[in-house]
Amino acid sequence: MKILVGFIIGLIAGPVLFAIAGVLGWLPSDATASPPGWESNVGMRALDASLEKRSKGAENPIKANDSAALAAGRQLYGDNCAGCHGDQSGPSKWGSKGFYPRAPQFFQEGTDVDAEEAYAAVHDGIRYSGMGAWRDMMKEDEMWKVANFVATIHPVGGEQMKMK
Question: Measured between alpha carbons, how far is 38 from 3 in angstroms, rounded to an integer?
Fold first, then answer.
């Protein structure tokens, strides 16, 4: 019984102490701090699950082999996304160091999202990150084009769509 009570108190005390440490300013809040591994892991798992759920039922209007749409997506990515997410020539200097959480550097890290998940991220943004919602700034077909392009990016050195 004592072990159970101790376990329950631990379940409550841990998060309460963590919250108190945050409120008192004892936890880092600057964007240049390196995130601990557990935070990155939990955050990425939550983001993956959220994008899967948000993209469920989305119907990609662009065919996978539409080279004109991929070329347009490549151009849109270069114009609107590379500043934060980098390109084949290298990571974004401020997107890879000045964001918290860091902006994914797709050409260096690759991406594990499909076009529907990328569309959900572009359309509605990602909370608690620098990724804003583009639904009021891009046309629907443009968001799909860039989403299709992002889904094709693999790390530099692997087979990938190259930006020109």
Answer: 26
The model's pLDDT over 84-99, given as tens digits with 9 standing for 90+, comes to 999 999 999 988 888 8
Burial grade of 42 (CB within 10 A; 0-12, 13-18, 19 or more) = exposed
**Cβ distance 26 to 33 under 8 Å?**
no
Token output for 110: 């690759």
**Rounded distance between C-alpha atoms, residue 149 and residue 115, angstroms:** 8
22-to-8, 18, 28, 29 alpha-carbon distances in Å: 22, 6, 8, 9
Phi-psi region of 125 (alpha: psi -120 to 50; beta: other; left: phi over 0): left
